[in-house]
Structure formats: structure tokens, C-alpha cells
């Protein structure tokens, strides 16, 4: 076994690999970019070496630098994690040349599976079923359009070198083809440096089911069953579970064997995932093979009782697979939720910022009075409170994984864990994940890749206005923060008597609601009134940001975190963001800047579709920005005339920068 490895990655996966290495007594070397000097993965490894500036191209993708660091620090092997260099065959070759072990498959297997189109041709020969489509070499736009017409709409265009759901476009009819092709190729070039595309039939209501395979250098290859990753947004996974609901044992074996055949066809070694797209009737087609450890590998670990990183290390060191096919069994059910820094209400736009407050549900009481069962609950995270989610890398905050003896128990535990997860400082999808877990479709296992789009009404309900309890928590937190330290009004009632019957009017705004709260100071308590609701409120306990109130006859606990003018109230499993409108601070403030369209996040302008003076209709694309490797279209909010375009293609813009001004009709 190795005594020291280098981890050529960052975030949760670097921390995940380091944890297993540490358990096995293997020393770890982290590499990091300037943006990650204080990152968690740097702290959890035994050594850490700076390899370059923030952009991945200048750091995490610098194969030469990383190999140099491995040699200089005496590491014998490199674990690439996922993303970055993990599926880079040249890097695998360069490692071998330098006398280092690449913890992954042989370069030849990466190459064979690296291009979605080449892999499809190979699988066709190995008799693995494929979705009808075109995956040829010729990339002429007219030919591609003819092929799409032949396949029949809707057609899916995919970047052949793509991954992570990027570079994909669904085309509904031939008229839209050329525009979609151009946009797909643009995203493919900027994300993968290769604009080759393939086209295939876009299946209706498909499920994404993938098989975990593992092969060693002694000719053995096993499958560790399936994961259902159907719940996606923008073709990117949000929830993953194992086993797949409703999977009959015979189909499981058939898919497992097809996956092993696919792996064997390319001389595979190590951890790999064969992705299938399945129709509701159970028929399945090969989509692609990911030649690395997958983000969602923990659900497989939980149901099989394995540590797949340990398997990777053992196989890379030349050992045999720890278990044979006949020894692998499914035990219970596991679900993973990806906690992202993003705004589900705004089209899942990535959010960036600092985790000013982050409390993970470590003490989840699964059984009444019990403590969290480590075998049933896991959080893999690469960030801690105080860390930032930057525009340079993936906006994933953490993965939360739970296990239950069956799906129902796993779902209940996940819902409970999510309601205890608190984040302030950036938008997250936690509340959305909870609604998703509890939705009729997901809890009823009515799965397909369009689940989120199909259930908009249930998943994006009207905001429920903050309750009197939530408003009381925020008001009390505000009053507490205004009190000078050392002056504790609840111990000495002195101050209160003097102020008795003093009234305060507080205003808290939610996205779509305004709350006027009247607080009347009484001796040792307050009368709090909002709208028609009113109650006598007393402070039962305060411990940092944790506040317990007696509101009428009810005892209410909550955590209130103040972030500037915002009060984030976490109570009864919900998070309410209240904007405190201090009347004085806002006096004389200018009206909202009408007619200006601003950048929703920092990024680069990749296309400007309009010119000054041009008339546009509501919904027309005005500017396309690229941020976090994804394209975002800025559309006209209403009919009008473009007044001035303030940036041109290639310009870098900051968050909130006005992009163009606009005159309403
Ligand atoms: P990536 O490598 O970017 O993840 P994949 O080829 O794995 O791309 O596809 C990602 C997702 O896109 C799938 O999980 C599925 O939801 C959807 N998808 C891919 N191919 C098809 C198809 N032919 N029809 C319908 N949906 C598809």
C-alpha cells in the first residue's frame, strides 16, 4: 500500500479522500489555488502546496505543476477526485511517465469513454443498447440538422466531451435548430475546449439509472448495484438514491451485467459508473460511462457497507477487489441530497458569498432521545462556517446522505435532517430540497428526469407569510441586539419599568409581504402584535443566537441570525429571511433604479443580441452572460426600446452591474 498520496482536487471530494487515507494510515498532500488558501481540504491534509491563481486552468488543471508537487513531496500516487483532471487521459499518461500511480483507470479506457460519441460507437459494437441518434464525426451544421430531422423532434444536442449537464440543448422543432446548435457549441468550447456535438432522440419521462462498477488488475469486475439519479434540474442531479425504487432483481442483474460488459470492453480498472437512461417500461439504453468516482458514490457505500475510496486505493496498489459479486448485498435504502449555493426560485441561478452562519444537523435525533447514528447519517462537505463559495468553482456546499432500513425511513430522516440545516450568507436550495423530499411525486417514487418541471406548483408554492412566532423571534433578537452589553433588562426590571408602555413599531419585509409589528414594552415581557394576531411574549432563554420564547401558552424555539439588515429566523424546520426596514436609515433613499438590467452575478458577456434603439418584446434575449461555466440569458422584463448597451462581448462584469438601459413602451 502507498504511504503517501497527493489529492489533485478541492472541496468535499478532497476531504472525502483524505478521510479514508487517514483511516488507512496513508499521508496526504493537498494542492490548492490562491482562492483556497484557507479552505477545509488544505486544513485536513498532512501537507498542502500552493499551485497557482484561482482560475482552475491556472491551478487545479495544471497537470505539470501537480506532478512536480507529487514528486517533490514524495507521494507515490495521485487521486484526482472527480471533475478537474479525473478524466484526462494525458494526465494519467503523464503520471505513469513520472513514475506515479494514477488512482483511476488506464489512460486507454479514459480515452475510449472520453468522447460520448466515440463511446457510443464502441458500445454499439459490444451490443449495448443505445438511444437512436447521430454520433458521427462530421459536424457540418446542415448535416446535423438533417440528422435531427431524421431522428424526429424533440431532439437532444449534447457536447460530445460534455459532463455535469453542461452543453446540452433540447430542440423542439427544426426552426430552432441552428440557434440551439450555436449556443450548444459555444458552451461546449468554453467548458470543454471541444465543440463537437451529438444528437439523439429526447426520451419522454425517462429515468436516469446508473450502475457502479469496480474492476481490478487481476481481471475481476463487479457491479455494486444501481443508483437512481432521475431528480435533476438543468440536467444536473439533485437527489440520488440506491437502490432504484421498483427495480426487479432480474432487471438489476441485466443492467449490472451490461455495465460490466461495457467496462470490460474498454479494459477498465478501478471505480467507474455506467449511466443508462431508462424508459418507464424498464427498457434501458447506454448513455455514457464516467471513468472516475461519482459525486453520489456515498449512497452505494451506505447500502453495500463499503468504502469505495478504500477500494480505489487497494486496486491502484495492485490488490484484488475486496469482495466478489456473490458477496455483495443490498442493505436498506440510502438517499443523497446535494446542498447547493443557488436560488431555486430564480431558475437555480448559482449564488456566491460567505457562509456567515452554517449549522449542520450533526445532532439529528433519529430515534426519540437517541443521538445521530453515524451509519445512518453523513455529511460530506468541503466548506465550513466562514468559508466562501466563489465564482471559480462548483457551487456545491455539501452532500447530505441518510440511510434507512427502507425508503420510507430514509425519506423521513432526510426531511428531518434538512429541517435542521441552517445556512446564512448566500441562497441555498435547502428549503427546496425539503419540499422535493416531501413532494407527492418523490415520496411516491413517481420518478423521471422531468419531476421538478412537472411539479412546479407543489415545489414552488406561494410564500406563506411569517407567523407571529417568527416575527416575535426577530423582534426580540432585534431588541436584544440594541441593548448595550452588561445591561440585562430581564434580570433587573428597572429599565423596563421606566419604559413601561413604551411602544415600538418595527417593519419586516419578506419577498412579497410587509409586516408591521407593534411591540409594547411591559414589565418582563412584551405585547407583540402583527396584523390581527397578538400575544404576550416572554423570553424564556437566550444562548447566543438561540432564543426560546413563551408566546401566549406556546413555547417556541428558534435561531435568529442577523446579517446586516436581514434577520434569518430558523424555527420549526423553516427558514424565514426578514428584511428589517429601519425607517431612519432608509429615509430619503432613491427610488428603485427602473429601466436598468443588472448582472445577476459576476461573469463574462458572451453575446449581445440587441443594439441601442432596438425595439424588443417581453422575454426577448438581450444579453448572454457566462458565469460559473454556464450561460445565463438576460431577457427583456417587458416590451420596450433598448436605450443603451453598456458592455460588449468579452467584457467581465461584476454582480449588480447595469448591463443595458431600457425604455418601457
Ligand atoms: P452529462 O455527462 O453532462 O451528465 P449525460 O449524457 O449523462 O450528460 O446526460 C445528463 C442527463 O440528461 C441525464 O441524466 C438525463 O436526465 C438527460 N438526458 C440525457 N440524454 C437524454 C435523452 N436522450 N433523452 C432524455 N433525457 C436525456
Account of the protein in words:
With 665 residues, this protein is α+β, with helices and mostly antiparallel strands. The chain folds into five domains: 100 residues, Rossmann fold, CATH 3.40.50.20; 70 residues, 2-Layer Sandwich (Dna Ligase, domain 1); 253 residues, 2-Layer Sandwich (D-amino Acid Aminotransferase, Chain A, domain 1); 113 residues, 2-Layer Sandwich (Glycoprotein, Type 4 Pilin), CATH 3.30.700; 69 residues, Beta Barrel (OB fold (Dihydrolipoamide Acetyltransferase, E2P)). 26% of the residues lie in helices and 33% in strands. It has 19 helices and 39 strands. Strands 14-13-10-11-12-15-22-20 form an eight-stranded antiparallel β-sheet. The chain has an eight-stranded antiparallel barrel with strand order 24-25-26-27-28-29-30-31. The protein has a five-stranded parallel β-sheet with strand order 3-2-1-4-5, sandwiched between helices. About 4% of the residues have low confidence. Bound molecules: adenosine-5'-diphosphate. Adenosine-5'-diphosphate (ADP) binds next to strand 7, strand 9, strand 13 and strand 14.
Q: Mean of the pLDDT scores?
A: 90
Strand line-up in the sheet with most strands:
14-13-10-11-12-15-22-20
How many structural units, i.e. domains? Answer: 5
Coarse structural class:
alpha+beta
The number of strands is 39
**CATH class descriptor name of the largest domain:** Alpha Beta
Strand content: 25-35%
| CATH architectural category of the largest domain | 2-Layer Sandwich
Rounded to the nearest angstrom, the radius of gyration is: 27 Å
Per the CATH scheme, the topology name of the largest domain is D-amino Acid Aminotransferase, Chain A, domain 1
| Attached small molecules | adenosine-5'-diphosphate
Helix content: 25-40%
Question: Roughly how many Å apart are the termini?
Answer: 71 Å
**Overall 3D form:** globular
Give the count of helical stretches. 19
CATH H level, superfamily name of the largest domain: ATP-grasp fold, B domain
Amino acid at each position: 500500500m502507498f504511504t503517501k498520496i497527493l489529492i489533485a482536487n478541492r472541496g468535499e471530494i478532497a476531504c472525502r479522500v483524505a478521510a479514508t487515507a487517514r483511516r488507512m494510515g496513508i499521508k496526504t498532500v493537498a494542492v490548492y489555488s490562491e482562492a483556497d488558501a484557507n479552505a477545509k481540504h488544505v486544513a485536513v491534509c498532512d501537507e498542502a502546496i500552493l499551485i497557482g491563481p484561482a482560475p482552475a486552468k491556472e491551478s487545479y488543471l495544471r497537470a505539470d505543476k501537480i506532478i512536480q508537487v507529487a514528486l517533490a513531496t514524495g507521494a507515490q500516487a495521485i487521486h484526482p477526485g472527480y471533475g478537474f483532471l479525473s478524466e484526462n487521459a494525458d494526465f494519467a499518461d503523464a503520471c505513469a511517465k513520472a513514475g506515479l500511480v494514477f488512482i483511476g483507470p488506464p489512460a486507454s479506457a479514459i480515452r475510449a469513454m472520453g468522447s460520448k460519441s466515440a463511446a457510443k460507437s464502441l458500445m454499439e459494437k459490444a451490443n449495448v443498447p443505445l438511444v437512436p441518434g447521430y454520433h458521427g464525426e462530421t459536424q457540418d451544421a446542415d448535416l446535423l440538422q438533417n440528422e435531427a430531422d431524421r431522428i424526429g423532434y424533440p431532439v437532444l444536442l449534447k457536447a460530445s466531451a460534455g459532463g455535469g449537464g453542461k452543453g446540452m440543448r433540447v430542440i423542439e422543432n427544426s426552426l430552432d435548430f441552428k440557434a440551439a446548435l450555436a449556443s450548444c457549441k459555444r458552451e461546449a468550447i468554453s467548458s470543454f475546449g471541444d465543440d463537437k456535438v451529438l444528437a439523439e432522440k429526447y426520451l419522454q419521462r425517462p429515468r436516469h439509472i446508473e450502475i457502479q462498477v469496480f474492476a481490478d488488475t487481476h481481471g475481476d469486475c463487479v457491479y455494486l448495484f444501481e443508483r437512481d439519479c432521475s431528480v435533476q434540474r438543468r440536467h444536473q442531479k439533485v437527489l440520488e438514491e440506491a437502490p432504484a425504487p421498483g427495480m426487479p432483481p432480474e432487471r438489476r442483474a441485466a443492467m449490472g451485467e451490461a455495465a460490466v460488459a461495457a467496462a470490460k470492453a474498454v479494459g477498465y480498472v478501478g471505480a467507474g459508473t455506467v449511466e443508462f437512461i431508462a424508459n418507464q417500461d424498464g427498457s434501458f439504453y447506454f448513455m455514457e460511462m464516467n471513468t472516475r468516482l461519482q459525486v453520489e458514490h456515498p449512497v452505494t457505500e451506505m447500502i453495500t457497507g463499503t468504502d469505495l475510496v478504500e477500494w480505489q486505493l487497494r486496486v491502484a496498489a495492485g490488490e484484488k477487489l475486496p469482495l466478489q459479486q456473490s458477496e455483495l448485498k443490498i442493505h436498506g435504502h440510502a438517499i443523497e441530497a446535494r446542498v447547493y449555493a443557488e436560488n431555486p426560485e430564480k431558475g437555480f441561478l448559482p449564488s456566491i458569498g460567505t457562509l456567515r452562519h452554517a449549522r449542520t444537523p450533526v445532532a439529528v435525533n433519529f430515534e426519540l432521545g437517541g443521538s445521530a447514528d453515524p451509519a445512518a447519517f453523513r455529511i460530506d462537505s468541503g466548506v465550513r462556517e466562514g468559508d466562501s463559495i466563489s465564482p471559480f468553482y462548483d457551487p456545491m456546499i455539501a452532500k447530505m446522505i441518510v440511510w434507512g432500513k427502507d425508503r420510507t425511513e430514509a425519506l423521513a430522516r432526510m426531511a428531518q435532517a434538512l429541517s435542521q440545516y441552517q445556512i446564512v450568507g448566500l441562497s441555498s436550495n435547502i428549503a427546496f430540497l425539503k419540499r422535493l423530499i416531501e413532494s407527492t411525486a418523490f415520496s411516491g417514487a413517481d420518478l423521471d428526469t422531468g419531476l421538478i418541471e412537472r411539479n412546479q406548483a407543489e415545489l414552488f408554492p406561494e410564500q406563506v407569510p411569517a407567523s407571529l412566532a417568527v416575527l416575535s423571534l426577530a423582534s426580540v433578537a432585534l431588541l436584544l441586539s440594541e441593548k448595550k452589553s452588561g445591561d440585562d433588562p430581564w434580570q433587573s426590571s428597572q429599565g423596563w419599568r421606566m419604559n413601561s408602555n413604551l411602544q415600538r413599531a418595527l417593519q419586516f419585509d419578506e419577498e412579497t409581504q410587509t409586516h408591521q409589528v407593534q411591540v409594547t414594552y411591559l414589565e418582563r415581557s412584551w405585547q407583540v402584535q402583527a396584523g390581527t394576531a397578538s400575544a404576550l411574549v416572554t423570553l424564556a432563554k437566550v444562548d447566543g443566537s438561540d432564543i426560546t420564547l413563551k408566546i401566549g401558552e406556546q413555547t417556541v424555539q428558534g435561531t435568529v441570525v442577523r446579517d446586516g439588515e436581514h434577520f434569518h429566523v430558523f424555527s420549526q424546520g423553516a427558514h424565514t429571511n426578514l428584511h428589517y426596514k429601519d425607517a431612519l436609515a432608509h429615509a430619503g433613499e432613491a427610488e428603485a433604479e427602473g429601466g436598468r438590467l443588472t448582472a445577476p452575478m459576476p461573469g463574462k458577456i458572451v453575446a449581445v443580441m440587441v443594439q441601442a434603439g432596438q425595439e424588443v418584446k417581453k422575454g426577448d434575449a438581450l444579453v448572454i452572460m457566462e458565469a460559473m461555466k454556464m450561460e445565463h440569458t438576460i431577457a427583456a422584463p417587458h416590451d420596450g426600446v433598448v436605450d443603451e448597451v453598456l458592455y460588449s462581448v468579452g467584457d467581465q462584469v461584476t454582480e449588480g452591474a447595469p448591463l443595458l438601459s431600457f425604455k418601457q413602451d
